[in-house]
Amino acid sequence: MSTRQKFHGLGFLILLFALFSGSGFLWLLGGFFFFMPAFSQWWTRQLPRWILVEWQADQTRVMPGTPIAIRLRLHNRSWLPLPGTLVQFSLPDHVAAADADEAVQRNQRLWLRFRFHLPPKKSAERLFVITPHKRGVLWLSEAHMETIPLFGEESAPLPLPFSFSVLVYPQPLPLPALDTWSTEPEGSRVTRLHPTEDVTFLRGVRQYAPGDRLRHIHWKASAKTGQLQTRLFEPTASPRWKLVGHILPSYEPLLQRHNDETNERAISALAALSVFCRRHAYSAELLLTVKQRGREHYQLSAGSGKAHHIQLMTHLAKLHQYAPTSLASLLHRLEHVSSPGEMIILVTPRLDERSVEMIERLSARGLRFTVIDVSGEQPALRRWDRVSTRFGRQRKVSHR
């Protein structure tokens, strides 16, 4: 028999005596025993309204292995004390935690528990450190609180909503020395290639043409002339790279193989290439063999600088639920949008016959290919005149 049932039984007996004796005190005492269980249920339902969780972290964007100091605060806005309050929440199992009262591994999750003693209208806080070791987004939306019930029964966890997220960037892999394909200075040779435009130097305006970007429209000149005018920028000789990432399905039933580790190496290699482009002030364009927003392939427009590097790394960190597509179709698309002389770096764990044929066609058109093989533990740099032989091709095509 539970404590609530005992209260109901005792209250019934007291009310029964009050009915025969007519004592007002017994009526009040019996009603009190019936009132207490109802008050306990009402208080349990209202408790999340009086308890507030506050979560503060010193960093919200980190690299794997970076400690994050967190301040957890619990505010009691009611007039009743809450001794022995237990707050718990879960994190992925790759996260290491320190300074918690209890840390339990269960169902591939790390459960952290903290004990608080909250006086009325007071707050309490705890400091602890978490260290994520994998890329992704650590997102928490609620914690579970348990407190001592009024009747001493088994306490039920109550959800406490709050919002917290940490973005963990992918760890760049150590890549072999890359050939930057340094060319002759502009003007020392004849070329039909139009150099890249540098948006930091304006050289004039022209009339708007369909397909121009809205952010390049010169609104003041458009207002003066009565027609839309597009900005013209000075040319620059900075290289422009296209980073192509080959993402495999998470599981291939025919081969009975999981590709999670292979995909992580590919993503880390793309992150290392982004760091390389950022360090050398190269313009980079990202293409991935995954579907996104109804498109067959993901594409991040070419850009340079810190903002573009952060945008690229952010997308790589959030790349989890994806639908892989064909690498050959992506290379076929590059055949129509790329110009001779462009540098294409392909990060792939394996190549099929169609992909090899497309690379040979692109190389014959003058595109420069460098393949980074991530099938092994350490990425290997393969020049295309050697890659074709490695993947079973007898005919060698030079990248030059």
Automatic annotation (TrEMBL):
InterPro entries membership: DUF58 (IPR002881)
The keyword Transmembrane is assigned to this record: yes
Keywords: Membrane, Transmembrane, Transmembrane helix
Domain named DUF58: residues: 205-374
Listed transmembrane segments: 12-36
Record bears the keyword Transmembrane: yes
Protein name, UniProt field: DUF58 domain-containing protein
